[in-house]
Amino acid sequence: MLKAKTVSESAVRDHVYRVFPNDLNSNHTVFGGLVMSTLDRICSVVSERHTGRVCVTASVDSMHFLGPAKHGDILVFMASVNRTWRTSMELGAKVMAENAHSGEKKHIVSAYFTFVALDDRQKPIEISAIIPETPEEQRRFEEANFRRERRRSEMAERASRNLSSITTKNTVFVS
User: Fold this and answer.
1) Does the domain at residues 5-174 carry the CATH identifier 3.10.129.10?
2) What is the mean pLDDT of residues 85-98?
3) What is the pLDDT of residues 30-53, one digit of tens each?
4) CB under 8 Å to 49, separation ≥6 — which residues?
């Protein structure tokens, strides 16, 4: 049996990124794809710290852009494991925008990622359990199961829709 690990053993709490003009979209706010890519990389680091294995992104859900960041802001990225299952884990990610001059901070992005650990043959492998220590970590641990059930339900619904489609030559009939 693998040794369980605490959330803090793998968490990234303070990854900073200064926003420069080349990071802005046509609305002069941070390009969302930059934030998404950075979050995916940080979550990759967190998942691999937790497992000691290569991990891949299985899904991203509930990515919410709550507010803009602008030129000169400092983005503060945070991510940690919310819960683990046999071969997969949910990570919670958050981004704050900080004005370096005023010190004002605002929450601009929240997201949930699912990562899967792989063995040397690129097959899912069993991972260590997570130990939530704080009340906030315990809340996220419990809420992760609800999100997992929703993801599974959505996956089953998509599979059901795909099975109900019959393709004949160039025509698709959907029941």
Assistant:
1) yes
2) 98
3) 999 999 999 999 999 999 999 999
4) 9, 10
